[in-house]
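quick one: zinc ion bound model?
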Amino acid sequence: MAQAIPGDEYRPDDTARTTGWARFIRAMFITFHLLPLLAIFTGVTWQVVVCCAVLYVVRFFGVTAGYHRYFSHKTYKTSRVFQFILAWLAEMSMQRGVLWWASHHRDHHAGSDTDRDIHSPVKRGFWHAHMTWLWAPEASSPRSRVRDLSRYPELRFLDRYWLVPPLVTMIAVTVVFGWSGLLIGFVLSTVLVWHATFSVNSFAHMFGSRRFDTADQSRNNWLIALITLGEGWHNNHHHYMNSVRQGFKWWEYDVTWYVLKVLSWVGVVWDLKNPPKHILSA
Ligand SMILES: [Zn+2]
Ligand SMILES: [Zn+2]
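yep, here:
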Protein backbone atom coordinates (compact mmCIF):
# COMPACT_ATOMS: atom_id res chain seq x y z
CA MET A 1 0.00 0.00 0.00
CA ALA A 2 1.31 3.44 -0.87
CA GLN A 3 1.38 5.82 2.05
CA ALA A 4 -1.52 8.27 2.29
CA ILE A 5 -0.60 11.85 1.64
CA PRO A 6 -2.60 14.99 2.49
CA GLY A 7 -5.33 15.77 -0.03
CA ASP A 8 -5.18 12.25 -1.35
CA GLU A 9 -8.56 10.95 -0.21
CA TYR A 10 -11.16 9.67 -2.63
CA ARG A 11 -14.25 11.64 -3.52
CA PRO A 12 -17.16 10.06 -1.65
CA ASP A 13 -18.70 8.27 -4.61
CA ASP A 14 -20.80 5.29 -3.62
CA THR A 15 -19.84 1.89 -4.95
CA ALA A 16 -22.91 1.52 -7.17
CA ARG A 17 -22.21 4.81 -8.91
CA THR A 18 -18.54 3.92 -9.35
CA THR A 19 -19.39 0.55 -10.88
CA GLY A 20 -22.03 2.19 -13.05
CA TRP A 21 -19.53 4.62 -14.52
CA ALA A 22 -17.01 1.84 -15.15
CA ARG A 23 -19.65 -0.12 -17.07
CA PHE A 24 -20.69 2.94 -19.02
CA ILE A 25 -17.11 3.78 -20.04
CA ARG A 26 -16.47 0.21 -21.19
CA ALA A 27 -19.72 0.08 -23.18
CA MET A 28 -18.95 3.47 -24.73
CA PHE A 29 -15.51 2.26 -25.81
CA ILE A 30 -16.78 -0.89 -27.45
CA THR A 31 -19.63 0.94 -29.20
CA PHE A 32 -17.38 3.72 -30.51
CA HIS A 33 -14.91 1.22 -31.94
CA LEU A 34 -17.67 -0.58 -33.87
CA LEU A 35 -19.83 2.36 -34.99
CA PRO A 36 -17.52 3.71 -37.77
CA LEU A 37 -17.97 0.38 -39.61
CA LEU A 38 -21.54 1.47 -40.41
CA ALA A 39 -20.03 4.05 -42.79
CA ILE A 40 -20.02 1.17 -45.30
CA PHE A 41 -23.75 1.90 -45.63
CA THR A 42 -23.66 5.71 -45.44
CA GLY A 43 -20.62 6.33 -47.63
CA VAL A 44 -17.83 8.80 -46.83
CA THR A 45 -17.44 12.26 -48.36
CA TRP A 46 -14.26 14.37 -48.36
CA GLN A 47 -16.06 16.96 -46.21
CA VAL A 48 -16.55 14.32 -43.52
CA VAL A 49 -12.87 13.30 -43.69
CA VAL A 50 -11.86 16.96 -43.24
CA CYS A 51 -14.28 17.22 -40.30
CA CYS A 52 -12.62 14.13 -38.75
CA ALA A 53 -9.16 15.71 -39.14
CA VAL A 54 -10.20 19.14 -37.84
CA LEU A 55 -11.97 17.67 -34.80
CA TYR A 56 -8.88 15.53 -34.15
CA VAL A 57 -6.53 18.52 -34.09
CA VAL A 58 -8.84 20.89 -32.19
CA ARG A 59 -9.70 18.33 -29.53
CA PHE A 60 -6.11 17.18 -29.23
CA PHE A 61 -5.11 20.76 -28.56
CA GLY A 62 -7.72 20.71 -25.78
CA VAL A 63 -6.15 17.54 -24.37
CA THR A 64 -2.53 18.73 -24.51
CA ALA A 65 -2.84 22.48 -23.88
CA GLY A 66 -5.87 22.05 -21.59
CA TYR A 67 -6.08 18.79 -19.63
CA HIS A 68 -2.32 18.29 -19.55
CA ARG A 69 -0.21 21.44 -19.70
CA TYR A 70 -2.71 23.82 -18.07
CA PHE A 71 -5.02 21.95 -15.70
CA SER A 72 -2.61 19.20 -14.61
CA HIS A 73 0.66 21.11 -14.56
CA LYS A 74 -0.18 24.86 -14.59
CA THR A 75 2.68 25.58 -16.99
CA TYR A 76 1.15 28.91 -18.07
CA LYS A 77 -1.57 31.33 -17.03
CA THR A 78 -4.73 32.47 -18.76
CA SER A 79 -8.06 34.21 -18.17
CA ARG A 80 -11.04 32.53 -16.55
CA VAL A 81 -12.88 32.64 -19.88
CA PHE A 82 -10.09 30.91 -21.82
CA GLN A 83 -9.69 28.45 -18.95
CA PHE A 84 -13.35 27.50 -19.50
CA ILE A 85 -12.80 27.21 -23.26
CA LEU A 86 -9.80 24.92 -22.68
CA ALA A 87 -11.84 22.69 -20.38
CA TRP A 88 -14.67 22.57 -22.95
CA LEU A 89 -12.30 21.70 -25.84
CA ALA A 90 -10.60 19.03 -23.71
CA GLU A 91 -13.88 17.41 -22.64
CA MET A 92 -15.06 17.31 -26.27
CA SER A 93 -12.57 14.41 -26.52
CA MET A 94 -14.72 12.27 -24.18
CA GLN A 95 -11.94 11.62 -21.68
CA ARG A 96 -14.12 12.43 -18.68
CA GLY A 97 -14.15 15.53 -16.51
CA VAL A 98 -11.36 18.05 -16.26
CA LEU A 99 -10.93 17.55 -12.49
CA TRP A 100 -10.91 13.77 -12.94
CA TRP A 101 -8.27 13.96 -15.70
CA ALA A 102 -5.96 16.39 -13.89
CA SER A 103 -6.32 14.52 -10.61
CA HIS A 104 -5.37 11.18 -12.13
CA HIS A 105 -2.55 12.72 -14.09
CA ARG A 106 -1.03 14.44 -11.05
CA ASP A 107 -1.26 11.06 -9.37
CA HIS A 108 0.65 9.51 -12.30
CA HIS A 109 3.54 11.93 -11.77
CA ALA A 110 3.52 11.36 -8.02
CA GLY A 111 4.45 7.70 -8.46
CA SER A 112 5.17 6.96 -12.14
CA ASP A 113 5.84 3.29 -12.81
CA THR A 114 5.50 2.38 -9.14
CA ASP A 115 2.74 0.24 -7.63
CA ARG A 116 0.56 3.31 -7.11
CA ASP A 117 0.63 4.27 -10.83
CA ILE A 118 -2.76 3.23 -12.18
CA HIS A 119 -1.56 3.15 -15.81
CA SER A 120 2.02 1.93 -15.72
CA PRO A 121 2.81 -0.52 -18.56
CA VAL A 122 5.84 -1.63 -16.56
CA LYS A 123 3.77 -2.63 -13.53
CA ARG A 124 0.42 -3.57 -15.06
CA GLY A 125 1.04 -4.51 -18.68
CA PHE A 126 0.52 -2.73 -22.00
CA TRP A 127 -3.27 -3.00 -22.43
CA HIS A 128 -4.08 -1.96 -18.90
CA ALA A 129 -1.79 1.08 -19.24
CA HIS A 130 -3.20 1.86 -22.67
CA MET A 131 -6.93 1.69 -21.95
CA THR A 132 -8.45 -0.91 -19.65
CA TRP A 133 -7.44 1.12 -16.57
CA LEU A 134 -10.18 3.54 -17.58
CA TRP A 135 -12.85 1.15 -16.37
CA ALA A 136 -10.95 -0.21 -13.40
CA PRO A 137 -12.87 0.60 -10.19
CA GLU A 138 -10.05 2.79 -8.84
CA ALA A 139 -10.26 5.00 -11.93
CA SER A 140 -13.84 5.99 -11.28
CA SER A 141 -13.27 8.22 -8.27
CA PRO A 142 -10.66 10.91 -8.67
CA ARG A 143 -8.34 11.70 -5.82
CA SER A 144 -8.61 15.24 -4.50
CA ARG A 145 -5.34 16.56 -5.82
CA VAL A 146 -7.10 19.38 -7.60
CA ARG A 147 -8.35 21.81 -4.97
CA ASP A 148 -6.78 24.67 -6.94
CA LEU A 149 -9.16 23.80 -9.81
CA SER A 150 -12.28 22.73 -7.91
CA ARG A 151 -12.75 26.21 -6.42
CA TYR A 152 -14.16 27.28 -9.81
CA PRO A 153 -17.89 26.41 -9.98
CA GLU A 154 -17.85 26.31 -13.79
CA LEU A 155 -15.08 23.67 -13.73
CA ARG A 156 -16.98 21.64 -11.14
CA PHE A 157 -20.02 21.84 -13.43
CA LEU A 158 -18.06 20.71 -16.49
CA ASP A 159 -16.44 17.93 -14.48
CA ARG A 160 -19.80 16.62 -13.29
CA TYR A 161 -21.53 16.97 -16.66
CA TRP A 162 -18.54 15.97 -18.78
CA LEU A 163 -20.74 14.45 -21.47
CA VAL A 164 -22.24 17.85 -22.37
CA PRO A 165 -19.36 19.18 -24.58
CA PRO A 166 -19.08 15.96 -26.66
CA LEU A 167 -22.87 15.62 -26.97
CA VAL A 168 -23.19 19.20 -28.25
CA THR A 169 -20.37 18.52 -30.74
CA MET A 170 -21.90 15.21 -31.82
CA ILE A 171 -25.31 16.77 -32.48
CA ALA A 172 -23.78 19.72 -34.36
CA VAL A 173 -21.69 17.43 -36.59
CA THR A 174 -24.69 15.19 -37.32
CA VAL A 175 -26.92 18.15 -38.20
CA VAL A 176 -24.30 19.61 -40.57
CA PHE A 177 -22.87 16.43 -42.17
CA GLY A 178 -25.54 13.77 -41.64
CA TRP A 179 -24.99 10.18 -40.48
CA SER A 180 -21.55 9.78 -42.08
CA GLY A 181 -20.55 12.99 -40.27
CA LEU A 182 -21.55 11.34 -37.01
CA LEU A 183 -19.74 8.05 -37.79
CA ILE A 184 -16.52 9.40 -39.29
CA GLY A 185 -16.40 13.11 -38.40
CA PHE A 186 -17.18 12.55 -34.75
CA VAL A 187 -16.95 8.89 -33.66
CA LEU A 188 -13.88 7.78 -35.66
CA SER A 189 -12.12 11.03 -34.81
CA THR A 190 -12.88 10.41 -31.11
CA VAL A 191 -11.42 6.89 -31.25
CA LEU A 192 -8.26 8.24 -32.93
CA VAL A 193 -7.88 10.95 -30.26
CA TRP A 194 -8.31 8.33 -27.55
CA HIS A 195 -5.62 5.99 -28.85
CA ALA A 196 -3.16 8.80 -29.53
CA THR A 197 -3.68 10.10 -25.99
CA PHE A 198 -3.36 6.63 -24.48
CA SER A 199 -0.18 5.93 -26.45
CA VAL A 200 1.59 8.45 -24.21
CA ASN A 201 0.73 6.34 -21.16
CA SER A 202 1.61 3.05 -22.84
CA PHE A 203 4.17 3.37 -25.70
CA ALA A 204 5.92 6.46 -24.28
CA HIS A 205 6.72 4.49 -21.12
CA MET A 206 8.08 1.57 -23.17
CA PHE A 207 9.64 2.58 -26.50
CA GLY A 208 12.01 5.44 -27.30
CA SER A 209 15.12 7.10 -25.95
CA ARG A 210 15.86 8.36 -22.46
CA ARG A 211 17.76 11.64 -22.33
CA PHE A 212 17.23 11.97 -18.59
CA ASP A 213 17.72 9.26 -16.02
CA THR A 214 14.30 9.66 -14.38
CA ALA A 215 12.95 7.31 -11.69
CA ASP A 216 10.25 6.10 -14.11
CA GLN A 217 10.46 4.45 -17.55
CA SER A 218 9.36 7.50 -19.59
CA ARG A 219 10.73 7.78 -23.15
CA ASN A 220 11.13 10.35 -25.90
CA ASN A 221 9.32 8.99 -28.95
CA TRP A 222 9.25 11.03 -32.19
CA LEU A 223 6.29 9.15 -33.70
CA ILE A 224 4.10 9.72 -30.67
CA ALA A 225 5.17 13.39 -30.64
CA LEU A 226 3.99 13.58 -34.25
CA ILE A 227 0.47 12.25 -33.61
CA THR A 228 -0.02 14.03 -30.26
CA LEU A 229 0.97 17.61 -31.13
CA GLY A 230 4.23 17.26 -29.18
CA GLU A 231 3.40 15.01 -26.22
CA GLY A 232 5.83 12.29 -27.27
CA TRP A 233 8.85 13.96 -25.67
CA HIS A 234 7.68 12.25 -22.53
CA ASN A 235 11.06 11.66 -20.89
CA ASN A 236 11.72 15.41 -21.15
CA HIS A 237 8.31 15.97 -19.59
CA HIS A 238 8.84 13.59 -16.68
CA HIS A 239 12.21 15.18 -15.99
CA TYR A 240 10.80 18.71 -15.91
CA MET A 241 6.99 18.63 -15.80
CA ASN A 242 6.60 22.34 -15.03
CA SER A 243 7.67 23.33 -18.54
CA VAL A 244 5.09 24.51 -21.08
CA ARG A 245 7.29 23.08 -23.85
CA GLN A 246 8.03 19.38 -24.00
CA GLY A 247 10.38 19.45 -26.97
CA PHE A 248 13.62 20.76 -25.50
CA LYS A 249 15.69 20.84 -28.71
CA TRP A 250 14.84 22.90 -31.80
CA TRP A 251 14.17 19.70 -33.76
CA GLU A 252 11.85 18.22 -31.12
CA TYR A 253 8.65 19.50 -32.75
CA ASP A 254 6.01 20.53 -30.25
CA VAL A 255 2.95 21.94 -32.02
CA THR A 256 1.10 22.60 -28.76
CA TRP A 257 3.92 24.82 -27.57
CA TYR A 258 4.07 26.68 -30.90
CA VAL A 259 0.34 27.46 -30.71
CA LEU A 260 0.59 28.55 -27.07
CA LYS A 261 3.53 30.79 -27.99
CA VAL A 262 1.43 32.49 -30.69
CA LEU A 263 -1.49 32.84 -28.24
CA SER A 264 0.89 34.51 -25.78
CA TRP A 265 1.81 37.12 -28.40
CA VAL A 266 -1.83 38.21 -28.58
CA GLY A 267 -2.35 38.09 -24.81
CA VAL A 268 -4.66 35.05 -24.59
CA VAL A 269 -2.14 33.17 -22.39
CA TRP A 270 0.85 34.45 -20.43
CA ASP A 271 3.65 33.52 -18.01
CA LEU A 272 4.72 30.49 -20.07
CA LYS A 273 7.17 28.51 -17.91
CA ASN A 274 10.36 27.26 -19.54
CA PRO A 275 12.99 24.88 -18.20
CA PRO A 276 16.31 26.31 -17.02
CA LYS A 277 19.10 26.55 -19.63
CA HIS A 278 21.12 23.65 -18.23
CA ILE A 279 18.16 21.32 -18.78
CA LEU A 280 17.49 22.58 -22.30
CA SER A 281 21.12 22.02 -23.27
CA ALA A 282 21.44 18.60 -21.58
ZN1 LIG B 1 4.07 9.43 -18.01
ZN1 LIG C 1 2.27 15.28 -17.20
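The chain has one domain: 15-280.
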